[in-house]
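Data availability (excerpt). The following record was deposited with the supplementary files.
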Amino acid sequence: MPAREITFGDDMTGGLLRGVKKVADVVRLTLGPPSRRVLMQTAARPEAVGDGASIAKGINLKDPAEQMGALLLRSVADAIENDTGDGCTTAMVLADALLREGVRALAQGGNRTTLLNEIERMAALVVEEVASFSETADEKTLRGVALTAANGDAEVGEAVAEAVLEFTPHGMFVVEQGQRPGVEREVASGFRIESGFISHYFITDAERREAVLDEPRIAVTTAKLSAFADVSPLMEWAAKAGSPLLVIAEDVSGEALATMVTNKLRDVLKVAAVRLPMSSPAGRAMAEDIATVTGTLVFAYERGESLAQASAAQLGRCSRAVLTDRDTAILGGVAQPEAMESLIRRLTNAAKDQRGADRDALYQRMGRLRGKALVLRVGAPTESEVKPKLMLVQRTLRTVCNAAVGGVVVGGGVALLRAAGTLAWAATSTESQLAARVVASACEAPMRQIVYNAGYEPAVVIGRVRGNRSAALGFNAITGRYEDLLASMVVDPTNVRCAGLRTAASVALSVLRAGASVREAVPPPRLTEFERKYAKLGGYIATQSLALPGEMAVDDDSLLAYALLRGGDGAGPLVAKRTYVLETGITRLRKARTGGDPEGAEPRLDLFVLVAADSVRCDPSRVQPLLVPAGKESGSVEFFLGPLETGGRTVEVEFFYQRVLAAKVTLAFDVAGEAQA
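Predicted structure:
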């Protein structure tokens, strides 16, 4: 088990806040209509990404403490994606602001527990106030929301608005890559299972976090699959036939799941598994419906039936299965018309004898069996444009669906700003007043960033919006004017804004309530052969590779600048009021010659070295130039350590090649008290 490092107090929060800030500073660039994209390095080529959640997931920091902060902010995006699927960037900006304002408030003193409880209460009050601003979204509003969410792309906005208006926000939508530029629509038979893939290893599209199986064979069973023998015969047949396999069972675990995952990762077989609660009546009914839609049988564990005995003719089929971590869509099932009509007639007759919730459940089953799915195929003229447009369509679709379900509030950060302005009446104590300022300041952050990204002064805009009594007046970042944002269709889905603040407050408070952190310790840096050689002489050494121009790097790309402080008997603390020698130079770790160089040629390298000391008196001056010709010799200068104070001292050695800084070596050491006479 790797070593762990435990930190407390400011040491803990300092690293976390640095990590949160680094991620937040990147994702905040994508907030608002005048946002910018972020270039992300991938295995193939850099891609321009405009989605905050995708950016946060692609950032890994070197420092373990900062990485913990980055992961905390990433958890905000994950929670929002699972809740509403929209508003991740705003939620991360809110979490960053709440953390920073919360740390400042805690530094002012007072009862820590009471203050954090008051911050939680104030955030909940803002959520309630934002929800009270909500207005129902009619057709005109939804079309405006779609156009705004699509960043003014009329084609995408119109296609998404028509899709939601025709299929309702609870309809089944599938977004996939098309062959022709534009957005094409196609209606297909579809069946939705409210359960997603069991393991994320089944994912085939990492960016969209989907497992897509084209023309899979489908097996449905009420059993719990855990042994290798439960799935091996079926998987062997599917691998030989070259057909993807979808297994739907009460549970898949142990050797059975490991076998499926291994075959998927090794590209032996495209396979995925979905879990259904077969022990409940709803789960058993769902299994029967899936079997009918896909033209298969339910292998019932109660009747002693096993998937190991299944034949190819007993497996179901569909044109495509799309699995996410929340649900599964089965498109183009090959149901037998007679079997489908027989099941629907049976359910219709049963519904006549039922009342209340039982009858509603039967009608829901019939609607699901007759279900349709709308497939949106998105294409673009070039390959590099397809993925950003796919993500734009998905983001616009989620926004419009959320607006249709939960209503809308005024956008541009105005709703949060107005709601936070009502906290004064709830602040009755010192802690509550401080908590109100924390939450109010954090609620300004989204508008502040939108205005800044648009190129305007945030303080001026926020002051004017706050001073106006109109609840709908705000700053339109697209036009650069103050206007009625509801009339301009600059709106946000209500549940998205509420979920964003709720999640941000939860994560921020979990950090502020922590007293310590446990993380992997940073391993000590490994010494090079050169460093090990000179470290035996005693003293302090630091090295840095030279950043030479291209022509010199071709001749020799392995030069190392070094600084060695000598004079002590060992590597312990240096002693004040004693003279030491700082040796500087370069060393050659390996040679790399070009074919055109004459035999034995030695490229000449003249370095001018500048030595500067902090808290160290050097004679004759604090900055001394040294000449190190051709890397064969070293230069040195004497330092007299003054008796002014003890503690850490640093010496900086700068190496210049043709007056261009090629490397900077910083040598840090400790100085003890004065030398004994």
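Summary of structural features: Residues 529-594+602-674 form a domain with the Immunoglobulin-like fold (CATH 2.60.40.10).
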